[in-house]
Amino acid sequence: MAYQTGIRADSTLLKFFEQCKNGKVRMGKIVIKKEVLSVNYQYEGTNDWRADWSTVFPNCLDSFEPCYILFRFTNKNEWIFVSFADDLAPVREKMPLAATRATFMSEFGQSFIIHSWHFTNKHDFDLDKIEKRVAGISEKPMTEVERQLDYASRERAHAPLPNVFPMQTLRGCTFPIDRDALNELENFKNGSINFVQLSIDTLNEAIKLEGVKEKLEVSQLQSAIPKKEPRYSFYRYHNQSDDSDKIFFIYSLPPSAEVSVKERMLYSSCKLSFLDNVKNDCNIEVSKKIEVDSKDKLDDATLASYFAPEEPIKRQTFSKPAPPSKTPRRLIRDLPQTTAI
Hints:
Layout: H1 11-21, E1 27-33, E2 36-43, H2 49-56, E3 67-72, E4 79-84, H3 91-108, E5 113-119, H4 127-134, H5 144-157, H6 179-190, E6 195-201, E7 206-213, H7 221-224, E8 231-239, E9 244-252, H8 261-282, E10 288-292, H9 300-305
Parallel strand pairs: 4-5, 9-10
Antiparallel strand pairs: 1-2, 1-3, 3-4, 6-7, 6-8, 8-9
Helix pairs in contact: 3-8
């Protein structure tokens, strides 16, 4: 996955990694909570890895809680790494897990991992399936790029079929738009209001209405955009140059310090599918899409500049050189001969 979360192992997790490599831990389960990687469960184990595997799996797993699994395969430092994200888990939980996977493996140490798998069902942890993977049906050695491509292909293969609103597509994720928001978007299309603002409800995985303005002046637009929360906004702007109305879609995203990684990922991933739904369901044609943060200006001059006619570029012309037959003839004189001494 191209998007990187910036979530890294803290001192507590790095200390746990050291315990793993010192042979004190057979298995560890790591989850992402509040943008922090934390150990959710660990097991010291015995000298029999098969018995240990049957003891901890699948009892320690939660279908609604994506996680990373580290399991020491032998008494040496040979580890199995599993990223587990059940199809039942919320999209907002699975996305940070997928985006942090490469960073997690790198910080634990690629050289210690002999098998790297991605599971989407608890039954994938059955011991007989694991033994088949390990003994002869195991993965071939892969580079990190090959691992990422293999991981992406498995994600697509195990993606659930969509119902009314697909929760995840190749273009990103799609959340339904609530009824109040759809009603106000309809009013916006009809021209009864000129400003609509929406947000993503990360808990219920839906796009909800934040507010509307019947007649928002362009001088008030800057103050209508929150400085600490991301938003989707539609604004109808009257362009004086051609006396026409232009519809702006404003994707406002404050600096990273103000917004959680999860929110940034959801707003970014939902944007394209959301605009498609608005176009198809509400018949709203967006004239210009812009992305702004709290430092960008939103005034009349800025909006008008997007539709200002481009000045024609004056290209410098070069005169062609005269062909050889047209050039004046040159007189070549014989050089005086010199006598060697």
